[in-house]
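User:
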Amino acid sequence: MKFLKKISFLNTYQYWFEGAWKPYHLFSFSAFLHIKSGSIKKPFCFQENSYTLELDLTQDINIIYSNFAKQVRQQSNQATNDGVTCYFHNDVKGFESFFNDFASKKEIFATSERRLKEMEQNLQLVYAIKNDHILAAHSFIFDKEVGIVRHFHSASRRLDERYDSKIVGKANKFLTCKCIEHFKNDGFLIFDFGGIRYPLPENSTNGVNNYKMLFGGKITVCNNYYTPFYFLLKQAGKKFWLLGKKTTV
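Assistant: Predicted structure:
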């Protein structure tokens, strides 16, 4: 899966999950992301390890649900009884507005319609709705050939004082459950929760990690490779915010 991302006047390329390295990549702004440990290394590239949680979707759906934490199953059922529904639709502009409202409250980097459209062919947006109000929204990138779907963005109304945070929390868990079920039924093999911080510093907690672990899954190490030009741009991006930030909160 390949994405072309324009940063100012530069063309950068992201290859997700797999990608054959060619000598000409050395002279480009290219990144090979989330490559499974044990795969062939990319020569002359800077390497960084990352960690994620992966859920095996080849299991029976009843086994998958049985491995969820009890509170996930209970709150997902409560959301269903409360009339929360799941809605798949690639309304890029609507998602941008909803996510950026959440991002401003949480003080994280926003996304943009342009960035979302760069991934549009491999992007799925999904919403949890009650009484025509969006309570939560997630985005996923996917590679049907490889069989991996990866959680990319997550936003909700939990920081909006007009909404009951408990109802929003239930809706968010409901949405994750429905997405797992949907992608399993669509033939995907792996549901990737979009990265975790691992290992955690001693005496440290991480709410995002804890949330993702409620759904089961196996900690998996992956490799990220950056060509020299991309690596320099990435380092500059950390200082000047040239590169977007992937958020999974």
